[in-house]
Design goal:
Chain lengths: 379, 379
Amino acid sequence: MDRSFQLISSDTRTAARRGRLQTAHGVVETPVFMPVGTQATVKCMTPDELRELGAQVILGNTYHLLVRPGTELIAKAGGLHKFMGWDGPILTDSGGYQVFSLAKLRKISEDGVEFQSHVDGATLFLGPREAMGAQAALGSDIAMAFDECPHWPCDREYACSSLELTVQWAARCKEAVSSQPSAVPGRQLLFGIVQGSVYPDLRERCARELVAIGFDGYAIGGVSVGEPPAEMTRQVVMTVPFLPPDRPRYLMGVGTPPQMLEMIAHGVDLFDCVLPTRVARNGTIFTARGTYAIKNARCREDFGPLEEGCECYACRHFTRAYLRHLFWANEVLGLRLMTWHNLHMYLNTLKRARAAIAAGTFEDFRKEFVGRYHAEEER
Amino acid sequence: MDRSFQLISSDTRTAARRGRLQTAHGVVETPVFMPVGTQATVKCMTPDELRELGAQVILGNTYHLLVRPGTELIAKAGGLHKFMGWDGPILTDSGGYQVFSLAKLRKISEDGVEFQSHVDGATLFLGPREAMGAQAALGSDIAMAFDECPHWPCDREYACSSLELTVQWAARCKEAVSSQPSAVPGRQLLFGIVQGSVYPDLRERCARELVAIGFDGYAIGGVSVGEPPAEMTRQVVMTVPFLPPDRPRYLMGVGTPPQMLEMIAHGVDLFDCVLPTRVARNGTIFTARGTYAIKNARCREDFGPLEEGCECYACRHFTRAYLRHLFWANEVLGLRLMTWHNLHMYLNTLKRARAAIAAGTFEDFRKEFVGRYHAEEER
């Protein structure tokens, strides 16, 4: 397996790292936040706007694309990049998480899961072979192994058998990815997913078994499924030591800006989260001083930007008063501009984190950031 | 009254004219289509995108802005231009049409109408004085006189008394506009609105009385209120001869691309219509060959643009198959791109009309355009 990940520098006071991940559609500087493009679009945004925001890599959801419009159609279009007009790197999940959380399950076996589409009720089947086939059809740069993600809390017995299934499926995914041609040129990277719930020995065992199979990167799964924040940290801390330092580490579905910085300090390189785009649609604004709701009366006659000092398109051109009006009037432009700002805040935070790691000042940056972020939230 | 409108050329075979309207925020080349920005935003679009589309002037709805967020707030923001970030010309309607069609009416008098906001039930009052005050607070470049717009069909007696009220209100608007300071520098133009329903003598009388008062431009109102297309043409044809040739003529709420071209041939200079933006949200695409629905199965695997040969942003970057997917997935990006295309189609049609008038080929252009447009629609 060729080396796709290069470590540029490591922080001396924390486990934070600056890295560079080479993909078929370009280089990703890590640590990185990946905006989520569930249905072949990062909600409200054009690919040009994502580029302008400095997004390096986006995430596509295999389950959603499988049920609509279908991965065959996307393959006919020349792959997901061409279909949606994004020529940068794309990571696709395996669909496993959504099958277990969104679909109506029919039958689970060692080969995978038979389920009904939540869109039209069609009966579909997804297992390691099918998940890799779908991701090959999508032509993503980074594919995820098909896993079973236990909920929280989860008893030891379930966590153990789920882990065994996950490792077995991961091995099959590894076999499948080497045998399938991708819709796009360049090798598709494959990441394994460490499960094991809250049990340190199970996390270690899963990590060791996956590393023995050998993947281009490793994800920490089974987090952001309802557990308290401290529990998430614990799971990351118990898993990272068993992951190879020369492979990228991806914490799935995380999180808030302070959470990401904390996890970077624990050695995580990649993040994805629907928060900045999803809550924008409820009028929640992310800033360096925490979040606030645009619908609040105090924004009514506030002719300042969404965030003082922010250089995003929304903040350079529009006021809180205007955004509040658009929010209450249910105007699409409001969703666009708030999404724009929130994504900028996330991407800019990660950009600052990369610079701080390179400058050897990451822990100071993180502490100051978290302090300011929570000071305002508690007001 | 200074001369704001300049006739550049007149067609020899039709009554079409090329003109230039000077406003406080720049020049408008006529004939022109004005995208509708009801709630201080042309739905789905940023002002930058409108500029990129070549929009010269947009329309704001006084009634909608009055009930939310309130014209006082917009005045505090420095006027509608600053509030919404559009520095080109804005025409505002008087609110009369929406008061009579959207609000719950309480009391009608010679001074105006007491009504309840359709948003929060607040009791408001709008008459000629208030409508001019609101439009001054918005700081629009072109204000419309407050009128009463009869429905169709409308009996002669009602049309007659409605006309008398409209003329009386127009006179009061003329008085009010000269006495009120505008929120923006530069003189606010004021257009009168000709009513009179389907009755030629009433249309003539209304036009003559308004011209005697003297306005910067004249609108033909009471059209696009449910009457058959031929009836609309008849009303325009019976009204235009009584309007001064050296003033711009505005046909309110019209229409489809062939309708606009027909009305240009009858001497109309300005149009506004919600059609291109509204139907985009239902997935209806305007093209030179008529309209079609993106949701149709035949678009499923169509990897061509929304319209072959179109140079709009949506057509340069995305396929019908992708737009159809976004439509069925209820994705905001789909609304944006279809709105973009439809506005481009409208604005480009008017641009071609202006060029054809200047070149003396307008009638040929119009006939060819209408022929091709309807040929496809009938397929």
